[in-house]
Amino acid sequence: MRGNRKDARDPMTDLPALFLSHGSPMLAITETPASLFLKGLAAELPAPKAILCVTAHWETGEPMLSAAERPGLIDDFYGLPEALYRVAYPAPGDPALARRAAGLLSDAGFAPQLDESRGYDHGTWVPLQLAFPAADIPVVQLSVQPDRDTAHHLALGRALRPLRDEGMLIAGSGNVTHNLRAFRGQPADAPAEPWAESFAEWLAAAVAEGREADLLAYRERAPEAARNHPSEEHFLPFFVALGAATPGTPGRRLHRSMEHAVLSMDGYAFA
Q: CA geometry: angle at 269 spanning 134 and 199, to 5°?
């Protein structure tokens, strides 16, 4: 057990499903409110047997699961400081978990496939090396399907929910807001843009109030949705985490911060 069980009613005393904003790869080597949150996260959780990470940086037509025994790291970025390329995260893979997850998805009517060679992209290793730096917990990655809708990704999470009862941590990794055109050139500590802040606060309220229908229809109902997500891949992992929640149990925001004026680094837990 990491940390202490303070109250049986506290949603963090049982292993929740998570949505984590991973931001820029620089988060791995830069101290920010978001990196400090991630560094303290494991102390608030029971120790997972393994982690299923739904990563925004793996886009496929059908659900794909990584099944390598010893995945390497994918440097899916360029032009950043040399120190970032020296970061290691030698967490083992878990082919058995990949097969178990694929079976659950197949039973739910999906057509999952296994990739036995894929390494960890930065959507996976950046947040996990901050939260679980010992790299001793096996990790499996799940792709997103950007040509499918939010309901598809919610259904993925629902199909995978039994893994939580087996001691697995389901963690979606993306961003609450993700407009790279607006992000470029902004200082890390620039004041938050109102249009990014309004989306992040709408999301927090919708999660706390359990407004699943509004969340699924966020592109029509959330303020400035298209501006905050010109493309959806960085928000789709959120819906997998939401789907893995206990039905009828609202989620809660664990962390709130904004970087580069438009990049909301909020994190969520779903009991």
A: 120
- Which pLDDT score, from 0 to 100, does residue 147 have? 98
Matching residue, tokens 């470029």: 184
Residues making up the chain, counted from first to last: 271
pTM tops 0.90, yes or no: yes
Q: For residues 16 and 90, give the distance between their C-alpha atoms in angstroms, rounded to a whole number.
A: 24
Q: How many whole angstroms separate alpha carbon 213 and alpha carbon 71? A: 37
d(CA 28, CA 232): 23
Other Cβ atoms less than 10 A from the Cβ of 204: the count is 18
Secondary structure, 3-state, the chain = CCCCCCCCCCHHHCCCEEEEECCCHHHHHCCCHHHHHHHHHHHHCCCCCEEEEEEEEEECCCCEEECCCCCCECCCCCCCCHHHHCCCCCCCCCHHHHHHHHHHHHHCCCCCEEECCCCECHHHHHHHHHHCCCCCCCEEEEEECCCCCHHHHHHHHHHHCHHHHCCEEEEEEECCCCCHHHHCCCCCCCCCCHHHHHHHHHHHHHHHCCCHHHHHCHHHHCCCHHHHCCCCCCCHHHHHHHHCCCCCCCCEEEECCEECCCEECCEEEEC
Please tell me the predicted confidence (pLDDT) of residue 12.
54
Chunked into runs of 10 residues, the chain (271 residues) has average pLDDT values of 34 82 94 98 96 98 98 85 91 98 98 97 97 98 98 98 97 96 80 96 98 98 98 98 96 97 97 96
> So what's the pLDDT on residue 187?
75
Q: Are 271 and 251 in contact (CB under 8 A)?
A: yes
In this structure, how many other beta carbons lie within 10 angstroms of the beta carbon of residue 123?
Answer: 28
Q: Quick check: 204 and 253 in contact, CB under 8 A? A: yes
